[in-house]
Amino acid sequence: MTAFDRIIVSTNEDPLYLDFWPIAAWMWNALFPEARVCCAFVTERWENDPLVAEMRKYGEVTCYRPNDLPVANQTKMARYQLAMEEPETVSYIEDIDLLPLDREWILSKVSGRPKDHLLLVGAEIYAGYVDGQAPASQMTGEGKLFQQVLNPDRKPWPEWLDAFRGRTERHCDIASRAYHEDVTCPTSGPALGETLFSDEALLCRVRKEHPVPEHHVERGLDVEHDTLDRTWWPRLGEPLTIEGRVQSHCLRPFGENRARIYPMLEQFQLKHGLRPWPELQPRLPQRTPDMQTSGSGLMDEALEWIFDHIPAGSWILEFGSGAVSTNYLSRHYRLVCVESKREWLNRFPAYYIFGHDPESVRAGLESCPVPVEEFALCLIDGPTNGDTREPFVLPHHPPYLVDDTWREHEWSVARQLGFASNRAVKNFEQFSVV
Q1: Does an H or E element contain 129, and which?
Q2: What is the three-state SS of 217-286?
Q3: Within a 13 Å sphere around the CA of 400, how many CA atoms are in the beta-carbon half?
Q4: Alpha carbon of 129 to those of 124, 201, 214, 284: distances in Å?
Q5: What is the pTM of this model?
Q6: Segments making up each domain of the chain, as ranges
C-alpha cells in the first residue's frame, strides 16, 4: 500500500513556475514511480494547444480557465480543486519549485497518516503566531477530505473560488493581491491598507468551519543543513551537494539560473541512474488561438509588433495593465506594471506599482527588481474612461509603444515621446511606435 496515490503541483503561464514542471515531474517520478504526478495548470489555452501537449509528456495536466481573480491566487487553489475531483484518491500537495531529494524522509512524514485523516506537516512553524495554521506543502489526504473542508457545497470551478471573495479574516480574501517573494514593491505588503491572500490562512479558517479528522506531524528540519534553499544557494563555481539534503527550494526563475541549478540535477541523475532531465522547449512569442484581442485591450497588430521586435524574456515597463496586454505578454516577458486602479493590481504575473504620477513611478521603480536601463520596451496602454497617461521618459530611450493613438491625448503622448527621444513616430492603425 502506497502512502499516497498522486503528487499534485500547480502553475500558471508565469515562466517563474511553469518551467519547473518537467524537472519536478522527472524527480517525483524517479522517487515515487508508484504514484501519479499531476499538474493543475491555470491557463486560457485550449486543450489541444502545443504547450499543453508538451507538458503532458511528463505527467498528468489538468487545465483550469481563470476568472478575474488574481491568477496567482487561483493557481494556489487549483491544487485543492484537482485533489477534490477524485474523492477516494490520496493526494499529496506540493509547490512546483519545492523539489524532492529523499524518498525516505518524505515517507517518514506521510506514512503514519491514518486513513481518512488530513495530514498537516510543519504546523509548529506558526506556533505562537497563527494557531492552527499549517503549510500547504506535504498536505495529504483523500479527495473527499479536501471537498469537505473547502467545498462542501460542491460548487464548480470557478464559482467555488468566488465563494472566498470578500472574506474579512486576515489573509483570507481571494480577491486580495498576491505576495511578491523577495521583492519590495509598493503592492508586496499591506502598503495600501490591505492584507494579502494566503491559501494557508484560508485553509486554517475553513478547517475550523468544516472540520475533518487531522493528523499532525512536525517537519523537523534544519533548513540550512537539511535542504538546498534559494536563500543561500551556492554561487556559480562554489561546491554544491545533495548528500544529506531532503528537498530543494529552487532558485527562480529556472531559465536565468540554469547554470547554478544544473549541478543539483546532475547529482540527482547520477545518484538514481536516470536519463537526462527534460526541459520545456523555448516558447517563442507568438499569438495562440486562445488569445482574445477584441475590446479595449491591445489589438492583434500591436501584440504582434511586440512579439516580432522584443526578444522573449525581456523586461517591459507597462503603464496601465489589462486582460490582453499584461495577461498575454507575461507568458513571454517580465513586466513591471504601473497601475492606478486597485482592482487591477496583481491580477496577472507582473510586478505592480500603484499610481501613475511621475513621483509614484520613480519611487516604485527604485524598489523593483530591475534597473530601468534593462527595459526593452515602454508600453503605454491608455484606458477608455478619460483617465490620463502622462509621458514618462526613460533615460536610455527604449522603443515606446503608445496604444490607441487614434485618440487625441494618446497621440499627443506619442509626439512628446518622439520629441524627448529625438526619434520619429511611426503610426499604425491603432497604435504608434517611437
Answers
A1: none
A2: ECCCCCHHHHEEEHHHCCCCCCCCCCCCCCEEECCCCCHHHHHHHHHHHHHHHHHHCCCCCCCCCCCCCC
A3: 29
A4: 10, 12, 20, 45
A5: 0.91
A6: 6-272, 300-433
CB 380 within 8 A of CB 418: no
Superfamily of domain 300-433: Vaccinia Virus protein VP39 (3.40.50.150)
Grid coordinates in use for 129?
Answer: 503566531
Question: Using one digit for the tens of pLDDT, what is the confidence trace for 298-337?
Answer: 888 999 999 999 999 999 999 888 888 999 999 999 999 8
Dihedrals phi, psi of 249, to nearest 5 degrees: -95, 100
Angle at 272 between CA 270 and CA 277, to 5 degrees: 70
Q: In the CATH scheme, what is the code of domain 6-272?
A: 3.90.550.10
Q: How many residues in the chain?
A: 434
Cell of 87: 474523492
8 burial type by CB count under 10 A (0-12 exposed, 13-18 middle, 19+ buried) = buried
Grid coordinates given for 281: 522547449
Beta pairing class for 351-354 and 315-319: unpaired
Q: Count the Cβ atoms, other than its own, within 10 Å of residue 262.
A: 13
349 and 66 in contact (C-beta within 8 Å)? no
CA distance readout (Å), 43 to 39, 285, 290, 425 = 12, 16, 10, 36
C-alpha cell at 27: 524527480
Residue type, 375: F
- Write phi, then psi, for 71 (nearest 5 degrees): -60, -35
pLDDT at residue 182 is higher than 50: no
Spatial separation of the C-alpha atoms in residues 210 and 247, rounded to whole Å: 32
Q: Are 319 and 381 in contact (CB under 8 A)?
A: yes
Name the grid cell of 201.
Answer: 490562512
Residue 369 has a CB neighbour count (10 Å cut-off) of 14
- How does pLDDT run across 119-152, given as a tens digit for each residue? 999 999 887 666 789 999 999 999 999 999 999 9
405's grid cell: 493613438
The C-alpha cell that represents 66 in the structure block: 481563470
Q: Which amino acid is at 112?
A: G
H or E stretch including 331? none
d(CA 167, CA 173): 5
In angstroms, the CA 216 to CA 404 distance is: 56
What angle do the packed helices 21-31 and 258-272 form, to 10 degrees? 20
